[in-house]
Specification:
356 residues; alpha+beta; six-stranded mixed beta sheet; 7 helices
């Protein structure tokens, strides 16, 4: 029976190793400096925690073996209750680990803030002062991605491209529900929300064809909400822009309203011209003609609330017991306290006469 189990297990183990060998750990092998720093942060945090976890697990096995019931040579000290040296080790080691982990996490959280423009394109290579970041406006639609390049006046659906070693500034929003923009090899994910704009700064350091997708469930077509991200040389990126301009299609507001309708597994689409202010209108939920933008509505509401606050006279609060201002002396006679409403005499209920 044991031999049969071994024979069955060997193919299963071999198959598992083959499957694992084909895995591409893109998060652990990124091609963008921001993603590289995030990977390093994960590794450092994991190693710091293992400095405590591994010794504790090893000591659990050691104690179980050392003080097993059959080991008569183990020291047995039932009256032992304290050791200053052991207490120092037990408390000092985790405390030092927590301090180091907190410092690394705090520093990484601020340096890798998605809203913060990047200061370097790779280790030891700072961003040149004359380099302008590539602005990409991203709108998550149902269920596809729209990318607008205001610098070049073009737009694409489900295809994103950027030059190698040039900083990228993403401005992101959503047309209806919340999604999450994620290119694992480029940077961490960032949420897209309707009527709001989020930002992400990143850079790609190696040319290639990478996968991007939504990492937040958003409905029936969520599984097909994927796109390709191309890291290109300057010459190849210029050719890519020219190819999009040669498409001839125009992304007007009417075309955008058709595009935002729910569709699944949409192929790549290219637009040579984009309506002015389309992204800002998408953020304000006012692409449709005649629809007021959210910013204008909020400003109007804030202005009306301020006017109502200024015009309303201040009313002195009254005490429910004395009907006078708080702090005023109580009435001399308790019978003068008004406990009832001031209804008309016809509304009054006559008192019930006692039975004779």
């Amino acid at each position: 029976m044991v031999k049969v189990l071994r024979i069955v297990r060997l193919p299963a183990v071999a198959a598992a190793l083959l499957l694992l060998g084909g895995c591409n750990w893109v998060v652990m092998n990124p091609m963008g400096d921001v993603a590289v720093q995030q990977r390093n942060l994960v590794i450092i945090a994991t190693v710091l925690m293992l400095l405590i976890v591994v010794p504790v697990l090893a000591l659990v096995g050691l104690f179980a073996w050392r003080y097993r019931a059959s080991n008569k040579d183990a020291r047995y000290e039932p009256d032992w209750d304290h050791s200053t040296e052991l207490e120092l080790v037990i408390w000092a080691a985790p405390l030092l680990i927590i301090i180091c982990l907190g410092a690394v996490t705090w520093t990484g959280t601020h340096l890798l803030d998605p809203y913060r423009p990047i200061e370097r394109i790779a280790t030891g290579r700072k961003v040149a002062p004359n380099v302008k970041p590539l602005e990409v406006q991203v709108v998550s639609l149902d269920w596809k991605w729209l990318f607008i390049y205001p610098e070049y006046g073009i737009a694409t659906v489900n295809e994103l491209a950027a030059p190698v070693d040039r900083p990228i500034m993403f401005r992101l929003t959503s047309s209806s529900v919340m999604n999450a923009f994620y290119v694992p090899t480029l940077a961490g994910m960032i949420y897209t929300m309707p009527s709001m704009e989020t930002k992400l700064h990143a850079v790609i350091n190696k040319a290639g064809d990478y996968e991007g997708f939504s990492s937040n469930y958003s409905g029936a077509g969520f599984s097909g909400m994927r796109f390709r991200f191309h890291g290109l040389s300057d010459a190849d990126f210029a050719a890519w822009v020219a190819r999009n301009k040669a498409a001839g299609n125009e992304l007007s507001r009417a075309r955008y309203l058709q595009l935002e309708k729910p569709t699944e597994k949409v192929p790549v689409m290219r637009f040579a011209k984009v309506a002015p202010g389309l992204f800002d209108a998408a953020v304000g939920q006012c692409v449709k003609p005649g629809t007021p933008c959210m910013a204008d509505i909020m400003m109007k509401d804030a202005g009306m609330a301020g006017m109502n606050h200024m015009s309303a006279p201040a009313k002195e609060p009254e005490s429910p017991l004395t009907t006078a201002a708080p702090g005023s002396p109580p009435p001399a006679d308790p019978a003068h306290v008004d406990h009832r409403s001031h209804g008309a005499p016809s509304d009054a209920v006559p008192p019930k006469q006692p039975a004779l």
